[in-house]
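Subject: Sanity check before I submit

Could someone independently write out the structure tokens for this chain? I want to compare against mine line by line before I put it in a report. The sequence has 370 residues.
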Amino acid sequence: MIENSSSAAANQSEVIAEVRCTLGMITLNRPRALNALSLGMVRELLATLLAWQKDDTILGVAIRGSNKEGVFGAFCAGGDIRFLHGAGSSGNPELEDFFTEEYALNHLIHSLGKPYIAFMDGIVMGGGMGISQGGSLRIVTERTKMAMPETAIGLFPDVGGGYFLSRCPGAVGEWLALTGDTIGAGDAVAFGLADGCMPAEQQAELWETLATTKFANVEALNAVVRSRFVSMDGKNTAHRAEIDACFGQPTVAAIEQALQAGSDWARAEAATLRKRSPLMLHVVLEQIRRARKMTLAEDLRMERDMVRHCFYLRPGQSETLEGIRALAVDKDHNPRWNPARIEDVGDAQWQAFFASPWPAHSHPLAALKD
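---
Independent answer below. Compare away.
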């Protein structure tokens, strides 16, 4: 819903969208689910941004999350994985709609043509990265916990993850995609996944400044935001040489072996990989390396193919359904991966994820422009 002022009805909406002065202001308002994206939220965001893109009175967009105590504190924990499990298990066609429309939303944010300022405070994972990485100003705070943790649920870093992770320096993209490790503000800036850090306590003041200032132009808007940026140290930049040496290896097995022969940090990373879906590790490594040579639209079409296969390529043996079951449904944290070991994955098994189920002219995302 698009509101010109706050109201009790707006506060009940999962997406609160207001036009204030020269900016469109969006608050994700599903705090009990850490603002995990539902199909309804994706549709509201897409409709809102499409309308604002065409409105010459709107200079730019700002987006934030909310928590149980109020605004900020949590940006977006990803997609609604309980919905994905239920829809994937029951054959609900809205599963297909969710991914098609979510990826179209991700593409729109990248190509909006207007400033898009993402306040990436608190948890920013999965789908939360998808609605922030296309932003022109991506703000992180000392509370930011950023990750693409999909291999832990038998999925892959989608929502354009192949595109933006592959453009991180060195083999950082492979590291983040395969392990799902969480990084903070300093690392996010150092690795090209954020534009600047600011203290969390100063976000509310900046938000109000953006909402109440009649900016003369984009440059003035950007200058106000950038003037708030401060430096924050990265905790993983010290591991860059080892990340590149290990995660730059040609295969998943070679990556694990290199980690095993490395430092205490590297051996801990090897242990993390052994908890992930062996099949999806192979899929993800190929995804990142293919995406490095792709446009965003090409990557999103590839990911749409891949996510279709995650649910339907192996009926009754979906790694994604099994991973979500173990994490969020039965919560036994004991996924039964198939194959069970990295060494047991055959080339044909992971290669099948890259064959498109659709001819190019009938692809669900055929209309995306490069």
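---
OP: Matches mine. For the report I'm noting this point. Confidence is low (pLDDT under 50) at residues 1-9.
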